[in-house]
C-alpha cells in the first residue's frame, strides 16, 4: 500500500490544523456560515437533513486492516456505531458533531486517511477497479497512476475552483470495472505496440439530471504525458465551462454542446501549450517511486491445498453457492478474490457496523495480506485469499453476518441514503431497498433470475447510479407523496448504457410489486436461462414490460 | 396540544451549530421537541419569530433557520411537506444499522 511521504503527512496535518482553527472561529462567531461553508466542504463536512455528515475518501478503494479498524473506532466513538460505504469509494458518517470533526480528522490522519476533496468543485477522490493488482485480466495495476493523480490534484491551485465537481476513474483491466464511461474523465490503461503504458482518455460522462456516457477524446496518451494532457482538458473546461447555471456546469454538458470533435480540437490546441517536459519527467520519476508501494504481497505458494475449497463445495451446498457467487479468479491460480456483500436481506445497502469492520480487519490480516477493497457497488473485497483458506474464511464471515451469497444478483442492491439522511432527497431509498431485498430474499429464486443489477437513487442527482442499472429506481415527490420511477436496460462498465424510463411512477406501497412484475415478465418471456435479463430486454424492448405494468391502468 | 398547535401555521426550524441537530424555536428558546415550538398563525407573528431566529444566528447558536408550514397530526404538530416531516421524525425505523446482539 502507498505510504505517505513527509510532504503528504505535513500537508494533511496542516489542513487539519487550519480546519481546527476554522471550526473554533465558527463556534466563537468569528466566521459566518457563508464564510465557513466553503472551508467545511473542502474538508468533507456537509450539513445534511438531521445532522452534519463527514465523507472520508478511500483513495482508489484500497484500505488496510488498521485503517478499517480506525473507521470502526470513529463509528463507535463519534457516531452511531456504523458507517455507510458510498458508490464513490468513500465512507460516510451520518452523525458527527462539528465540534468533534477536527479530532476525527486527526484520528484519520494517524492512519494516513483524510476527507480532503470529497466535496466542492474540485477533482474528487480518484476511483478505480476494486480488483486492481489481482484481476486475472489486468494490463497493469492502475493504482500507482491513481496515486499520481491524487497527489497532482490535491490542492491544485488552478483546479480548486472548477465550474463544478470533477470525477476521475482509472481502469487497468481488459474489462472495465471502474465504470469509466460515467465519469467526467475515464482512463483506460493500455499498452502500445512497443509495450509502453498509456491511456485511452474518455471524456464527458456523468449521471444526474442529464445522464451521458463518456466518449473517447484520445485513443492513447503515453503515461508520462498524462498530467499535461489532463491539464489541457481541465483548462478548456475551466475556460469554457458554464458557471452561470449549476445544472449545466459539468464538463459533460460542454462536451455535448461543443461536440467531441470540437472539444478534441480545443484540447489539442491547449495541449500544445500545456505539454511540459518537466512535468513528464516528474510523472515518470514519481510513478517509478510509487510503483513499489503497490508491488504484489509476498504470496505463499498454496498450490498444495488449493483444492480444499473444491472438496468442501462438493459436500456443502451452502459453501458451494457462496464460492460460486462471491469469489472471482485471481491472477494466481492458488488464490481467489473474495467479495463481501454488504447487502444482507433487509439490511441497509453499504452499511457496516463497527464490530463487522473490526472482524473483517482481523480476517484481512489473517487471510488477505491485511488488505481490503471498497467497491462502487457498496461492497467490500478481500483481494488476496489463498484458495486453501476459503473454507475457514467463509465460516468466519458467516459468523459475522458477512457471507450473504448474493453478489451480482437482485438483492445486491445499490442505494443512496435518500430522504432518510440526505438534504437534497425527494424520496426515501433505504426502506424501498430493504423491502425489495426482503421480497427477493430467497436465494434460489435469485439464482433462477440470474445476473441482475438493481440500483436506486433518492433524487435526480443519481448518486445511486440508477441510470446504469438493469432495473433502476428513481425516488421523486409527486403531490406530497413519494413516487418511484422505473428505468430499464442501463448498464455500467463494459457495454455501458443509460436506462430508459418505463412510464409513470409507482407509490411507495406499489413499487415492490412493480419490480416483481418486471421480473415475472422477464422470466415468462426469456428463451432460456442463458438469456439474461439484459439480453432479453435488448431483444424485446420495453413493450412487454409496459404491457405488464400499465395495461390495466 | 394547545389551540394554536391544533390550528396549524408556521414554525421556525434550524440546525444547532455545534452538533447540527434539528431544532425548533419556541418561547423558551430552541428545542429538539417540536411541541415546544411557537406556531405563528399570521404574517406579523412569523416576522417576529424570524427576527428572533436572526438573533440566534448572530450569536452563533444556530445555522440556516427557515420557516416550515405545520398542521395538527394525530400525535401533535407535523410539518406539511414530506421532506420536513422526515427531518422532524428522523430516519425511518430500520434505516440505521445496529449492532447484532
Ligand atoms: S441521489 Fe439525491 S438523495 Fe441520493 S444521495 Fe444523491 S443527492 Fe442525496
Q: Summarize this, please?
A:
With 553 residues, chain A is an alpha+beta fold. Helix content of chain A is 38%, strand content 18%.
Count of the separate structural domains of chain B: 1
- Portion of residues in helices of chain B? 25-40%
Low-confidence stretches of chain B: none
**Overall form of chain A:** globular
Instruction: Predict the CATH topology of the largest domain in chain A.
Output: Sulfite Reductase Hemoprotein, domain 1
Query: Could you name the CATH class of the largest domain in chain A?
Result: Alpha Beta
User: How much strand of chain A?
Assistant: 15-25%
> What structural class should be given to the helix and strand makeup of chain B?
alpha+beta
- What is the assembly state of the chains in this entry? heterodimer
Arithmetic mean pLDDT of chain A: 95
Span between N and C termini of chain A? 57 Å
Average pLDDT for all residues of chain B: 91
Number of helices of chain A: 18
The general outline of chain B is: globular
- CATH homologous superfamily descriptor of the largest domain in chain A: Sulfite Reductase Hemoprotein, domain 1
Radius of gyration of chain B: 14 Å
How many structural units, i.e. domains of chain A?
4
Amino acid at each position: 500500500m502507498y505510504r505517505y511521504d513527509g510532504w503528504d503527512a505535513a500537508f494533511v496535518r496542516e489542513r487539519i490544523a487550519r480546519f481546527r482553527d476554522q471550526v473554533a472561529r465558527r463556534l466563537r462567531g468569528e466566521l459566518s456560515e457563508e464564510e465557513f461553508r466553503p472551508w467545511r466542504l473542502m474538508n468533507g463536512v456537509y450539513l445534511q437533513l438531521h445532522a452534519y455528515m463527514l465523507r472520508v475518501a478511500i483513495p482508489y478503494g484500497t484500505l488496510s486492516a488498521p485503517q478499517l479498524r480506525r473507521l470502526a473506532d470513529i463509528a463507535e466513538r463519534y457516531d452511531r456505531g456504523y458507517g455507510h460505504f458510498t458508490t464513490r469509494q468513500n465512507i460516510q458518517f451520518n452523525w458527527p458533531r462539528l465540534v468533534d470533526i477536527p479530532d476525527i480528522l486527526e484520528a484519520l490522519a494517524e492512519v494516513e486517511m483524510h476527507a480532503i476533496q470529497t466535496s466542492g468543485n474540485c477533482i474528487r477522490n480518484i476511483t478505480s477497479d476494486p480488483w486492481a493488482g489481482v484481476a486475472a485480466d489486468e494490463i497493469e495495476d492502475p493504482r500507482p497512476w491513481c496515486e499520481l493523480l491524487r497527489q497532482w490534484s490535491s490542492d491544485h491551485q488552478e483546479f480548486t475552483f472548477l465550474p463544478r465537481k470533477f470525477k476521475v476513474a482509472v481502469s487497468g483491466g481488459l474489462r472495465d470495472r471502474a465504470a469509466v464511461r460515467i465519469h467526467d474523465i475515464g482512463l483506460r490503461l493500455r499498452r502500445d505496440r512497443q509495450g509502453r503504458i498509456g491511456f485511452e482518455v474518455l471524456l464527458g460522462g456523468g449521471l444526474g439530471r442529464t445522464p451521458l456516457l463518456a466518449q473517447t477524446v484520445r485513443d492513447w496518451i503515453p503515461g508520462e504525458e498524462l498530467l499535461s494532457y489532463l491539464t489541457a482538458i481541465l483548462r478548456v473546461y475551466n475556460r469554457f465551462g458554464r458557471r452561470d447555471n449549476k445544472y449545466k456546469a459539468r464538463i459533460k454538458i460542454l462536451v455535448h454542446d461543443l461536440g467531441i470533435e470540437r472539444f478534441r480540437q480545443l484540447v489539442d490546441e491547449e495541449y500544445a501549450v500545456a505539454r511540459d517536459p518537466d512535468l513528464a519527467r516528474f510523472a515518470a520519476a514519481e510513478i517509478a517511486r510509487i510503483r513499489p508501494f503497490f508491488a504484489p504481497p509476498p504470496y505463499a505458494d498454496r498450490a498444495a491445498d488449493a483444492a480444499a475449497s473444491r472438496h468442501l463445495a462438493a459436500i456443502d451446498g451452502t459453501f458451494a453457492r457462496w464460492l460460486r457467487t462471491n469469489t472471482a479468479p485471481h491472477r494466481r491460480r492458488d488464490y481467489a478474490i473474495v467479495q463481501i456483500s454488504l447487502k444482507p436481506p433487509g439490511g441497509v445497502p453499504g452499511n457496516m457496523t463497527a464490530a463487522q469492520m473490526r472482524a473483517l480487519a482481523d480476517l484481512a490480516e489473517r487471510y488477505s495480506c491485511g488488505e481490503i477493497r471498497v467497491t462502487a457497488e457498496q461492497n467490500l473485497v478481500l483481494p488476496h485469499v489463498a484458495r486453501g483458506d476459503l473454507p475457514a474464511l467463509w465460516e468466519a464471515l458467516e459468523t459475522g453476518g458477512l457471507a450473504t451469497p448474493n453478489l451480482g444478483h437482485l438483492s445486491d442492491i445499490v442505494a443512496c441514503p435518500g430522504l432518510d439522511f440526505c438534504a437534497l432527497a425527494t424520496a426515501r431509498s433505504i426502506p424501498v431497498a430493504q423491502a425489495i431485498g426482503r421480497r427477493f430474499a430467497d436465494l434460489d429464486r435469485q439464482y433462477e433470475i440470474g445476473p441482475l443489477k438493481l440500483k436506486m437513487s433518492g433524487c435526480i442527482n443519481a448518486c445511486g447510479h440508477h441510470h446504469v442499472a438493469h432495473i433502476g429506481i428513481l425516488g421523486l415527490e409527486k403531490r406530497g407523496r413519494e413516487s418511484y420511477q422505473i428505468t430499464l436496460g442501463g448498464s455500467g462498465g463494459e457495454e455501458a448504457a443509460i436506462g430508459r424510463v418505463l412510464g409513470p411512477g409507482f407509490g411507495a406501497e406499489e413499487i415492490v410489486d412493480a419490480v416483481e412484475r418486471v421480473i415475472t415478465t422477464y422470466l415468462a418471456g426469456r428463451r432460456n436461462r442463458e438469456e439474461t435479463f439484459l439480453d432479453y430486454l435488448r431483444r424485446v424492448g420495453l413493450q412487454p414490460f409496459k404491457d405488464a405494468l400499465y395495461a390495466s391502468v | 396540544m394547545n389551540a394554536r398547535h391544533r390550528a396549524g401555521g408556521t414554525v421556525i426550524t434550524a440546525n444547532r451549530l455545534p452538533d447540527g441537530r434539528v431544532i425548533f424555536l419556541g418561547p423558551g428558546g430552541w428545542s429538539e421537541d417540536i411541541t415546544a415550538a411557537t406556531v405563528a398563525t399570521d404574517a406579523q407573528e412569523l416576522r417576529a419569530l424570524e427576527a428572533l431566529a436572526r438573533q440566534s444566528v448572530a450569536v452563533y447558536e444556530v445555522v440556516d433557520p427557515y420557516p416550515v408550514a405545520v398542521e395538527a397530526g394525530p400525535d401533535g404538530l407535523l410539518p406539511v411537506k414530506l421532506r420536513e416531516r422526515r427531518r422532524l421524525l428522523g430516519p425511518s425505523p430500520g434505516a440505521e444499522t445496529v449492532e447484532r446482539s
